[in-house]
Amino acid sequence: MFIKNYPYCAQRVFIVLLMFGQAFAQTSSDTVMRADSSVSALNNPYGLEALWVGSDSITKFVLLLLLVMSVSSWYIIVSKILLNKKMSGQAAQADEFFWSGDTVTQGVAKLDTDSPYRFIAESGASAVKTHIGLKKNIPSNDWIEMNIQSAVDTIQNSSQNGLSFLATVGSTSPFVGLFGTVWGIYHALTAIGISGQASIDKVAGPVGEALIMTAIGLAVAIPAVLGYNYLAKANKTVMDDVKEFSEELNGVLVGSDGRAA
Question: Of the spans 52-56, 97-101, 121-125, which averages the highest pLDDT?
Answer without folding.
Answer: 121-125
